Amino acid sequence: MHNRLYDDYLDGDELFPVVSVVADFLAALTERWPDRDTGDDTPWVATPLSGGQVGHAFTLRLRGMEQM
After folding, report:
1. Apex 17 CA angle, 8 and 44, nearest 5
2. DSSP the chain
3. Residue 56: CB partners within 8 Å, gap ≥ 6?
């Protein structure tokens, strides 16, 4: 499933509009944890979070998981 979503939405040249459930989820995350990649209080490795969302998929990199 993950590979198909990646191939369909993140690896192609076509841009798909972000579905509202993804946008709402990322908005809730950034409301709780600010959308910045510096500081001790943020879990994000890369920002903005909205930069990795396409259609039904999004990429999310968390601190401590860089080596995975």
Report:
1. 80
2. -HHHHIIIIISSS---PPPHHHHHHHHHHHHHS-S-S-STT--BSSS-GGGGEETTEE---BTT-TT-
3. 5, 9, 16, 19, 22
**Measured CA angle at 38 (ends 16, 19), to 5 deg:** 15
pTM for the complete prediction? 0.65
Please state, in angstroms and rounded to a whole number, the distance separating the CA atoms of residues 36 and 47: 6
- d(CA 26, CA 53) in angstroms, rounded, equals 9
Per-residue pLDDT 10s for the chain (68 aa) are: 567 777 776 676 777 787 889 889 888 988 888 877 666 778 888 788 777 777 777 778 788 765 54
